[in-house]
Design goal:
alpha+beta, 3-stranded antiparallel sheet, disordered N terminus
Length: about 180
């Protein structure tokens, strides 16, 4: 797997927590997101053209006596570890406007997602997706955040992952390497 360009700007990125990366690697594909998706609406595999970080990929946090907010990139990395999978634009061809229409998303849901994204500093024009699972054979690169920059997935980079996630991720990575070496 190699990115389309040295800095990955020609790729679309699926940002995730490291714990979710281990599941994605084990399954061999990225599944459409189904959490909170009502019956009748098509789930989406979300990507971003932002080559640094997609702000909406961070989990929200509830602070008693204060306004709810999303974790920062640093907070998310420290607590969960960060990972991303890069694909060519043809793999995630639908822009935000098209995703809203093709998914059957209600206008209320679309407006809420858009407003929340803008409030959190995201740019909906960077949102892309597909409705089909995205298999490993179309991934161009898998990277982990090491606290300073994105680095290709390798044993050496697993030190940036919280310890409770590291062992599971290492097991899955080793299994994927073993599988690849058998081909």
């Amino acid at each position: 797997m190699k990115p389309s360009s040295r800095d990955g700007t020609n790729l679309r990125w699926h940002y995730t927590k490291s714990i979710h990366l281990s599941v994605i690697l084990r399954d061999g594909f990225i599944k459409p997101a189904t959490a909170g998706v009502p019956a009748g609406e098509k789930p989406i595999v979300w990507f971003s053209s932002n080559s640094q970080w997609e702000l909406t990929a961070a989990p929200g946090i509830r602070i008693p006596g204060s306004r709810d907010r999303r974790m920062s990139m640093g907070e998310t990395a420290q607590r969960f570890g960060l990972a991303r999978i890069g694909v060519d634009p043809t793999v995630a061809p639908h822009e935000w406007k098209t995703l809203k229409e093709l998914s059957g998303m209600s206008s209320k849901t679309a407006a809420s997602l858009h407003e929340a994204g803008i409030r959190d500093g995201a740019r909906p024009g960077e949102w892309w997706g597909t409705f089909e699972p995205v298999p490993r054979d179309v991934w161009r690169v898998i990277e982990l955040w090491d606290g300073n920059h994105w680095a290709p997935l390798a044993k050496a980079s697993l030190g940036s992952i919280p310890s409770e996630v590291r062992l599971e991720l290492q097991r899955v990575v080793d299994s994927c390497h073993d599988e690849a070496n058998m081909r």
